[in-house]
Amino acid sequence: MSSVAVLTPESFAEHLSGIKDQEMTGGVPEDEAYIPTYLEAFPPLPENKGAPGDKSGEPAGAWGSKIRPIKASVITQVFNVPLEERRYKDNSQFGDGGEEAKVCLDIMQRTGAHIELSLAKDQGLSIMVTGKLDSVMKARKEIVSRLQTQASATVAIPKEHHRFVIGKNGEKLQELELKTATKIAIPRPDDPSLNIRITGTKEGIEKARHEILLISAEQDKRAVERLSLEKVFHPFIAGAYNRLVQELCQETGARVSIPPPSLHKDEIVITGEKEAVALAISRIRAIYDEKKRKTTTISVEVKKSQHKYIVGPKGNSLHEIMETTGVSVEMPPLDSCSETIILRGEPDKLGPALTQVYAKAKSVMVVEVTAPAWLHRFIIGKKGQNIGRITQQLPKVHIEFTDGEERISLEGPTEEVEQAQVQIQDIIRDLLVRMDYTDVNIDQRFHRHLIGKNGANINRIKEQYKVSVWIPQEPDRSGLVRIEGDPKGVQLARRELMEMAQRMENERTKDLIVEQKFHRAIIGQKGEKIKEVRDKFPEVMINFPDPAQKSDIVQLRGPKNEVEKCAKFLAKLIADLMENSFSLSIPIFKQFHKNIIGKGGANIKKIREETTTKIDLPTENSNSEMIVITGRKNHCEAARDRILAIQRELANIKESDVTIPAKLHNSLIGSKGCLVRAVMEDCGGVHIHFPSEGSGSDRVTVRGPAGEVERAKRQLLQLAEEKQVNNFTAELQAKPEYHKFLIGKGGVNIRGVRDRTGARIIFPSPDEPEQELITIIGREEAVRLAQKELETLVKNLDDVVEDSMVVETRHHRYFVCRRGQVLRELAEEYGGVAVSFPRTGTHSDRITLKGAKDCVEAAKRRIQEIIEDLEAQVSVEVAVPQRYHRAVMGPKGVRIQQITRDYEVQVKFPERDDNNTEPPQENGDASPEAEFVLRKCDVITISGRTEKCELAKIALLALVPVTEDVEVSFELHRYIIGQKGSGIRKMMEEYEVNIWVPQPEQQSDVIKVTGQVANVERAKSGLLERVKELQAEQEDRALRSFKVSISVDPKFHPKIIGRKGAVISQIRKDHDVNVQFPDKGDELQDVIVISGYERNTEEARSAIELLVSTLQEMVSHDVHLDPRTHARIIGARGKAVRKTMEEFKVDIRFPQPGSEDPGRVTVTGLPESVDNAVDHLLNLEEEYVSDGRETIISIWSKRCSDVVCCCVSQAPDMSNAEDFPTFGAGLAPKQTSAWGPKKF
Predict the structure, then answer these.
(1) DSSP for 428-466, written as a single string
(2) Measured between alpha carbons, how far is 76 from 115 in angstroms, rounded to an integer?
(3) So what's the pLDDT on residue 91?
(4) Does this model's pTM top 0.90?
(5) Is 137 in contact with 145 (CB distance < 8 Å)?
(6) At what angle do helices 171-180 and 133-147 cross, to 10 degrees?
(7) Running DSSP on this structure, what letter comes out for residue 545?
(8) CB count, 10 Å around CB of 446?
(9) Where are the beta strands (DSSP E) in 448-552?
(10) Which stretches of sequence are listed as region Disordered (predicted)?
(11) Which has the closest alpha carbon to 480: 446, 517, 442?
């Protein structure tokens, strides 16, 4: 749809004047790029509602007003990063592989802007950013923060003015950060600080500081005055190093804000008390009037490359000239081509200032030293040692190496440059004497083997021969390997590399077909088995495919003989594995599984050991009756017989065989075993076993209860008889090349025969030995009819005829190109028909077809169809930005192949533009709709029929990725990303999209989703669902964070915790809460904090209060028990005392070893329970003490009886603790006693 509007000459002139008046620069217009609405661009024509001839008044409608100029939506900004402010200064990596290029590529992907980098001669960076206004501003901010060194400064403004800097919803702050490319940190409202911190480049900080002071000045209730004075006189007002304006501020008390040199504004803002402001204005005007009256200017031409020396680091040289001569030096902008410098000052001081300008411009000398390019890195030295030594001695000299060129540039003060030149020349002469290099041409396919695993081979050669070896990267597709170093080492390294290459040329690669299920068995646990194989054949590399590929190919690589030996070894290993992996499944009635297992697994274990098989039974809750036996075939059969014997012994199980022709087995089993399963279920769960496929056996085994077995046999024989009637078979011989013609395109011919006769026709598969045999199956009459029809067709095909047809010569190439691919397809499809085209140069348009009559006619029709398609073929161009081509193609081109198959078209992608250089656009050059500049490398060509090309175009455009924004609260981002990115990675894989989450420092709520439209929509829905889940979790966490405090005497805390935390764990479990006791160092030792849901915390508090009230009713009673009885009361491992405590519901505490009162035992509990427990303990004490006395008396009596009739020559020692022990006391070490050995 198009619209046409007619402009009057007057309005058109106004429109042109509006465009001319608009300043077109590389920066951003002060009023942002304006995109008019449809009605503004094409307003309706005025309606004349007055009387005819009435000319009074102004014209009605929008056409009477001035038309606003249309501005471009695509802008270009150029800015520079000086050398001293560059973050990455390693120029050896400048370009595609450098950090700066990687950073710019990342920024382009994130912002959508186009960035171009270039390196100035002074090593500064020149950056050009092109794109929409918003994208350019975001890109510039990121470039400054990531490529330029950052400084920081603070600016103090009244606290009440901070909110005006932030703006509504933070919009003003964001705008200010984008505009100045800085990061501005404003203190929180509860922070009393007045300082606002600005981080960024020096230029950006100055701009941001100026803007913030302007905002503060506008909001300040004190006087604010703006003086518009010519920008060129600002340096005189500021003074050298800004000293004059600082003195003015101190003397008057007013605040004077002068825009920085990089900001092209004439306005100076003065704020403060009215009197101070008036005084400051008068002083500034006096300076301005004086300088305007007294000063004059002179212009000089100085090479652009020398301007930086006049400016000096951070503008110090300009300030120095101003301080010594009082002359202001005006430099052209860095992005300007002008070389004119203007000096402004009093006439008598311009001369000295000019002298200083020339002196500073010529204070630096540039010299070039010639050196072979391959020597550069040796001149630089390891980690820059050589050059570092020179630059340390001569810090003002800048040394630049140019890749691929035989020159080195030196720049700096004349004397130092000359010294550096001498030192570098000495290094070059020394290196040329003791260094050499050579190039070796080695096939690129051997390069990775030369390098070795993790660089093992190449590192060994480097260390052994003290050389450097440079192997080209894979994308370079070069076979040239360079060796540099000591001449002797170079030759030795060259010889070894050549030998390695020659050895690899003699290597052989062999593929073994090994079923994937055996791979893990060959590799072994933790790779133990394959390690043994590799140790046995160390020169052979054995590569297994990735499990995800589901490939059976195992690759061997190495010397021919070793590869053959390894292949035979592995083949034998695989044969053993295959022999041991035979598997049998036998159905055993479920009720007998436990008898087969036996008590404690005795039966099944015995069968496994004696037959050396693996036997797997179904789980107890499974409905399956199948027992699986794995191992050697004869062992599996032996195990099967033993298991079946157990079943026969346990029940009246009968086994019977029925003979059914093997060709009927598949039809009796049915799809997925449905028919045979129905018979088994109908006959009381009998088991029917068919012989394995290919065995040729006709015997079918039926096992089960006797009556049901006979019933199942009758049903099987009945089914077999029915299948026999419908399973008549006939065979027909036909040449393999006729098969495709008999089948027809899409099976149309053979389907017609099947529909007419009702017979089933089977053609041989490619791996069958009998390729000419066609099988016909069905009822006898149907088979005979189909056989007759096919024989007629084959007979016609055997009658060879020769025919010709006219094909224009311009179409011949299509049929014979690609080594006659189209002709081969015709021959395969139409019964081996031979198509002959005239030779090139005969200018004949007649082709010859030879073959069966029907095949020739069909081939002619097909050739005619192809010609019609070629004549109707068109080419359609589709514009898709080159960066999306890889996504459109898909992995290994699968998506584009699908389109070519579905729509029968050819799709051609353009050559890739590696430079990726888009023509720069100035503001106003592009239309408002322009998204990108169309380039040759963006155009994809589709060839085919018109209607199919259009459909293919739609399908192609549907594959172009789109990016959509999803608003997700910044607080939820880390939960969406997940631990180590697992959450975001899972979503990207599930929805086949790319999800970009902003950096934490940006604190942005926008998540970008990139991918195909359908996938993006699914991903957005999934992302929003995840957000809902996270929000629900947050709400739940908020509800669970309710806290209640309860004050409990610390002496009750151990009781509330319980033995090993049993009591408190039960409270936590019952009420789903967390209970926190105070730490030892806490001030409030009596406060217990309960957190969880509000209701649960209240219930937990009630439970603890109830427990505390019970504890408060308890009493403690001390009872003295003989220490000798303590061990028996406690019992083995405290069993006896625990039983006592449980019986009486009390707590009993015994004294610690070494206690002052060893007999005191403390009993705690309810009063009545304590009394009962004390009585019980006293009874136990009395019982144990009396038992101890009786034992001592018995021992003493026995000893006395032993010595009555003896003559004692030495009386016993009564103080001996071993011979006369005390009850409960420990024994002394054994000694020889006069009484002889002890009898107890």
Answers:
(1) HHHHHHH-EEEEEE--GGGHHHHH-GGGHHHHHHHHHHT
(2) 10
(3) 58
(4) no
(5) no
(6) 60
(7) P
(8) 19
(9) 467-470, 480-485, 507-513, 541-543
(10) 45-64
(11) 442
Provide the Cα torsion 344, 350, 355, 358; round to 10°: 20
Contact in structure between 537 and 562 (CB atoms under 8 Å): yes
Backbone phi, psi, residue 913, to 5°: -95, 95
> Which token pair is 578?
């295959």
Q: Is the pLDDT of residue 72 over 70?
A: no
Secondary structure class of 272 (helix, strand, coil): strand
Q: Which of 605, 611, 618, 619 lies closest to 640 in space, CA to CA? A: 611
**Sheet of 398-401, strand order:** 365-370, 407-412, 398-401
Residue 130: both structure tokens together: 């092109």
Joined together, the tokens standing for residue 962 give 């789109």
Return the higher-pLDDT residue of 951 and 415: 951
Q: How many CA atoms lie within 13 A of 1179 on its CB side?
A: 7
**Both tokens of residue 593?**
């599984």
Which structure tokens are listed for 940? 């994809």
Closest CA to 1146 of 1171, 1122, 1120, 1178: 1171
DSSP-assigned states of every residue in 1162-1178: EEEE-HHHHHHHHHHHH
Q: What is the pLDDT of residues 298-311, one digit of tens each?
A: 988 888 777 877 88
Return all residues near 796 (Cβ < 8 A) that are at least 6 apart: 852, 853, 854
Residue corresponding to tokens 């050549």: 498
Report the alpha-carbon distance of residue 742 to residue 752 in Å, rounded: 10
pLDDT band with cut points at 50, 70 and 90 for residue 39: low
- E-strand ranges in 923-1005 read 939-945, 962-967, 994-996
Output the DSSP codes for 1078-1130. PPTT-S-TTEEEEEE-HHHHHHHHHHHHHHHHHHHH-EEEEEE--GGGHHHHH
Whether the CB-CB separation of 277 and 271 falls below 8 Å is answered with: yes
User: Element (H or E) spanning 775, and its range?
Assistant: strand 773-778
Count of CA atoms in the C-beta half-sphere (13 A) of 47: 2
Place of tokens 């790779």: 527
747 SS3 class: helix
Tokens at 372, concatenated: 């072979």
Number of neighbouring beta carbons within 10 Å of residue 5? 10
Got the DSSP string for 602-663? HHHHHHHHHHT-EEE---TT----EEEEEE-HHHHHHHHHHHHHHHHHHS-EEEEEEE--GG
**CB contact at 8 A, 153 and 198:** yes
Look at strands 328-330 and 365-370 and give their pairing. Answer: unpaired
Going 1068 to 1069 to 1073 to 1079, the CA torsion angle's sign is positive
Pairing of strands 873-879, 939-945: antiparallel
810, 814, 816, 819: CA torsion to nearest 10: 150
Residue 172 DSSP SS3: helix
Contacts of 565 (CB under 8 A, 6+ apart): 537
